[in-house]
């Protein structure tokens, strides 16, 4: 199984993430092809099903959550970058299974 890293946010009660790149061999494309996977939280692995988010309300909440979580000057580039339409469309929810 391929292991990759992503940083998610909680926009209560959902756990969501957004892809910075959409590489053919990256986690985002992998989850589109096969939405079943696991996420690691500390030492614990949780089985998930990934689901694309189409709701503009939830996408807006994800942007606010990233902005709240990443406040350092070096992070602002990424907070702004996650607001682009291309990256908004990569919003994924991790649902436990």
Strand content: 25-35%
The tally of strands reads 5
Query: What is the strand arrangement across the widest sheet?
Result: 1-2-5-4-3
N-to-C SSE string, H for helix and E for strand = EEHEEHHHE
Report the uncertain regions: none
Structural class: alpha+beta
Helix content: 25-40%
Count of distinct structural domains: 1
Summarize the main sheet. Answer: 5 strands, antiparallel
Separation of termini?
18 Å
Shape call: globular
Q: Please count the helical segments.
A: 4
Radius of gyration: 13 Å
Give the averaged pLDDT, no decimals: 88
Polypeptide structure, described:
By secondary structure, the chain is α+β, with helices and mostly antiparallel strands. It has one domain. The protein contains 4 helices and 5 strands. A 5-stranded antiparallel β-sheet has the order 1-2-5-4-3. The two termini are 18 Å apart. The model has no long low-confidence stretch (mean pLDDT 88).
Kindly summarize this structure in a few lines.
The protein has helices spanning 27-33, 56-69, 76-81, 85-88; strands at residues 9-11, 14-17, 36-41, 44-52, 92-96.
SSE map:
Blueprint: E1 9-11, E2 14-17, H1 27-33, E3 36-41, E4 44-52, H2 56-69, H3 76-81, H4 85-88, E5 92-96
Antiparallel strand pairs: 1-2, 2-5, 3-4, 4-5
List keywords for this structure.
32% helix, 4 helices, 97 residues, 5-stranded antiparallel sheet, 5 strands
């Amino acid at each position: 199984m391929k292991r990759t890293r992503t940083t998610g946010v909680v926009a209560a009660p959902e756990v969501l993430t957004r892809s910075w790149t959409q590489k053919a061999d990256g986690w985002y494309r992998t989850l589109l092809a096969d939405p079943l996977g696991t996420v690691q939280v500390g030492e614990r692995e949780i089985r998930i099903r990934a689901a694309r988010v189409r709701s503009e309300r939830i996408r807006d909440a994800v942007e606010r959550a990233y902005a709240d979580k990443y406040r350092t000057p070096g992070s602002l580039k990424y907070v702004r970058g996650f607001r682009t339409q291309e990256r908004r469309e990569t919003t994924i929810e991790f649902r436990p299974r």
